[in-house]
Model the fold of this input.
Amino acid sequence: MNRKIIIVILLILSVWGVSYSGGNMNKGTRLYEKQDFNGAVENFLKEHSKKPKDPVVNYNLASAYYKSGDFDKAFETYETVLNNTEDINFKSAVLYNMGNCAYRKGDSDLALQYYKSSLKLNSKDMQAKHNIEFLQNDKNKNKDNKNDKNQKNNKDGKQQQKDRQDKEQKEQQQKQNNQQREKDQYLLEYFDKQDKQNQNKQQNAQSVNNKRNGKTW
Done:
């Protein structure tokens, strides 16, 4: 992954726990900041069991899931946040992070859709703009590479077809040459045989004629 987009993801994936003091949220936040993401998930889940629809609890839990590498659960939990908040800026951040999840799961097209949705809610979000630009450029680059590859494959295919045709023509020509040589050899042997037969006939005829004339030689 491009280094710039990694930095963007890290900048926005922080926990929101300022409205809470003490308890599981506070402990989960401290563990998150210490990069103990599995521990953070455990504590946020305890708070989640008490407040399953709380958007801040779900946001923190989703971010901890994301940082622990569980992008599927992070994505699902971010969806819960969207369904339980009307805060436009909050929704924009959530949509952005859902784009991060989609990208990490290997779906660049889906990630691009979420980044665009995030940008619609917050047109000043430079991070979303950067990621959209990055993915669009990467998509165009992949498209160009695919076209180049297809052109190369077509060129290679045409060359292979030409090579096959040339090979077939050479084999056909070689076959014809072999047949012609066999025919020529047959004719040579045939005429040679005819010559020998003619010579024998001449010798026999001469012998008979000599006998008639009383010659013995």
